[in-house]
Hints:
Blueprint: H1 34-58, H2 63-74, H3 90-106, H4 112-128, H5 130-141, H6 152-157, H7 159-170, H8 173-190, H9 196-227
Amino acid sequence: MPNSHYDVKFYVLTPTQSSASGTNAIGENLPGPGRNLGRLYDWLGQKFENILGKILFRAGYGPTNISRKIKIIRNPKWEEMESLAAELRDSDLRKLCRHCRKLVRYSRSGVLETQLRAVDAIIEFAIYDPLLNSILNYYVDSDSNEVLAWDISYSSSDPLLSSCRKALVSLSPSTIALHDAARQYGVRARTARMTVSFLRELFFPTMMGYLRCVYYLSSCCIDINHAQ
């Protein structure tokens, strides 16, 4: 009968159903001259995948390009951590939502490298930009969105995607506020305007919220390692 993985035929040799592989087998671990042909197919497949990836990247596809487009809309000098755009035009907001939705799609890609790049970008945006945090959380958590119809069995069988979802949910506005509090702390320390009320009412509570978030994420990672 045909073998769906190697596309070879097996022939019955004895009444005990023992069999031998044909000489046209192209699997890496199978005997016969077809093994070299299989290696050639693998090499050609990798080359084709790399070339196709470069073409798609130049055409503007992939998480790296989507991430760059999001940064341009929010702030062309994102790496310098300048102030983000306070107000956006409706057209820019629609573009932002569309790009965020694509980025979340890439986090569900079957290619591990694409997944990791998308997850890195999502976490960066969710931490540093409250607006992007809200948009990304909407697309990750929206049960009505057909793109993110998270199947329970699928999520539990894929630790990477499950961890990504838990990480985004835990990145609450209180966690993002840590960066504002840290900037204020630096300014007050340089200008000798550090006060007890600032530390007690803003900095310490924000820091504790951040630590709770980190603890939750670390527990998720431990669960994933045990599952593997």
